[in-house]
Amino acid sequence: xxxxxxxxxxxxxxxxxxxxxxxxxxxxxxxxxxxxxxxxxxxxxxxxxxxxxxxxxxxxxxxxxxxxxxxxxxxxxxxxxxxxxxxxxxxxxxxxxxxxxxxxxxxxxxxxxxxxxxxxxxxxxxxxxxxxxxxxxxxxxxxxxxxxxxxxxxxxxxxxxxxxxxxxxxxxxxxxxxxxxxxxxxxxxxxxxxxxxxxxxxxxxxxxxxxxxxxxxxxxxxxxxxxxxxxxxxxxxxxxxxxxxxxxxxxxxxxxxxxxxxxxxxxxxxxxxxxxxxxxxxxxxxxxxxxxxxxxxxxxxxxxxxxxxxxxxxxxxxxxxxxxxxxxxxxxxxxxxxxxxxxxxxxxxxxxxxxxxxxxxxxxxxxxxxxxxxxxxxxxxxxxxxxxxxxxxxxxxxxxxxxxxxxxxxxxxxxxxxxxxxxxxxxxxxxxxxxxxxxxxxxxxxxxxxxxxxxxxxxxxxxxxxxxxxxxxxxxxxxxxxxxxxxxxxxxxxxxxxxxxxxxxxxxxxxxxxxxxxxxxxxxxxxxxxxxxxxxxxxxxxxxxxxxxxxxxxxxxxxxxxxxxxxxxxxxxxxxxxxxxxxxxxxxxxxxxxxxxxxxxxxxxxxxxxxxxxxxxxxxxxxxxxxxxxxxxxxxxxxxxxxxxxxxxxxxxxxxxxxxxxxxxxxxxxxxxxxxxxxxxxxxxxxxxxxxxxxxxxxxxxxxxxxxxxxxxxxxxxxxxxxxxxxxxxxxxxxxxxxxxxxx
Length: 744
Description:
With 744 residues, this protein is mainly alpha-helical. The protein folds into two domains: 36-523, Amino acid/polyamine transporter I, CATH 1.20.1740; 558-639 and 650-698, no CATH class. 68% of the residues lie in helices and 6% in strands. It has 28 helices and seven strands. It has helices at residues 3-19, 33-52, 54-71, 73-92, 111-121, 125-140, 150-163, 166-185, 197-200, 207-243, 249-269, 272-296, 299-321, 331-336, 338-359, 365-396, 400-408, 413-418, 424-453, 466-487, 489-530, 543-546, 550-558, 563-585, 599-602, 674-705, 715-720, 724-735, and strands at residues 30-31, 455-456, 592-595, 613-621, 628-638, 652-660, 663-668. The protein has a five-stranded antiparallel β-sheet, sandwiched between helices. Strands 1-2 form a two-stranded antiparallel ribbon. A hairpin with a 2-residue loop joins strand 6 and strand 7. The protein is elongated, with a radius of gyration of 29 Å. The model is unreliable at 1-26, 531-546, 642-647, 706-727 and 737-744 (pLDDT under 50). Pfam families: BCCT. It is found in: Cell membrane.
């Protein structure tokens, strides 16, 4: 290690020992220039085209949608089904027990709090619009049944549940698992490109990764714009009924500007907690609105209808999920409904997936899939079941005007329905408030996600700089206004179908990359089980190797270790032992010892949020295929309960926890002798070598099974792509000479 780095580490360690402050990651969030400029230029160009030449943009959108429906309609249907089968398969398979985070990670939020956030994720302004407009459309203009028949009524609700149901949430689950797994388990950035490391290797750090993130941003911004556009036309009706504000593009632009203002205020003033509170309050208001319609309306009919809807949905789901209407001329219907919804879900997948990943650390994949696909759908079922059935019942009761009005001006449907209930004026105000709050919170969250996707974020909990968030808030508003001027909601739907297509192909690669990574981890666990040794207190050393009596070990187990004692152990025992081992390794391998939380090593550690980290010591060995990394992290933790009467509630101690690239090993090496520590490192190194041998043997067998492919690299070279980024970090540290000398 250079003198400057040595001095910095000494100063940092001394400061942390004396003041007890946690070491923090020194790298601030920063803009990814290529992704930011590429996505921004693309959005600006499309927005200018729509504003300056709306007729040309409208015609081009129509041609593009017709072509996509013809050539890629089946692809959208097949992809949605494949993703659903994939995530359900993950949950049901051996991979279902894999946690987002290290094996010892536990959920940050309680099950109730997590379920509440998932429930809120299923709510938005758009479902207020489609819960009435779509069932009426399918009832009056059904794809297969006779118009206004009982069969059409049943299919109308079932189609709406299908479009808002588990298929779309399967897409969200895929992106949430992929983003969370590669961020928490593989220590990659919380970005879409990270999920493609097993497929593309280090190429995702270059232009290919930039293209992937640009596709994610483009899909997200058009998905958000579609939601905001639907929201403004819906809210415009409510404002007209309450305040007499005339419906039209002027009022809609004003609503878009309001969303931009709220997003900028949230970014610049730090009122995020207030925004979150409004979002949570809105969930209660929305449930109250649906509850009033249920209680004040035909309660017995609505409950019976919802039960029937569930049966119809379950019975017809396998047929609908692969329905392409190949023998019918239903291209226009498919484009307006199923293809639009699948493209819309795909466009929002990065957005919602990032949210799901952030709240789900410590959950198993099985918990994640079950929770994500069931809990939000309960809200969808409740809302569509109440409002959709109530709307169809109103038409069947003789209100033909309501049906005609909803077909011609879909945004009028919800408000016209509410006018048939007691307290209509209050319900209209409540619906407008609920829609407005969903609208502004969606705009604020969308700007944050797009800012994060276009930035380098040191940790999962970091957010992009405020100026970037402000820019995306403004650009989203401009795009929404531009597309609304072309043809209103139909133009937004068409644009979503077009812009969702590139990211649809990315999601195929995400499935492949996630499966490869999970299979890779399964092979690692198998090799560790096969290489298991007789261990003492979690280490790989035998009692003869430990060099310390069991009485000495017991003393450390019950002792409340201070920061000074932990750092003294690292100075006197651990670091000299690692340097001694590195010296012997360097006859064959280029081993490097790094002291402190080096920025290039921090991202490889499994640092649990809200735990103070006081020091770190790492051994890095850049092997041919995948580097070996062994970290000792001085971290604050609770005193064990077996401390007895001398242990106070909430008392903490310092643990020297062992971390490998796959996460914390959940044991403490404080008090190990130098020999015991070296044997523990060698045990892990031996298991790592065994894992590499097993992985290459299995990969070579698969390649041989494919036949002799001319020019195909050997298996170890193909496998190398999944870890090249780790290897590069280890080699870069080694070349820079970041090796600490033993300190006395």
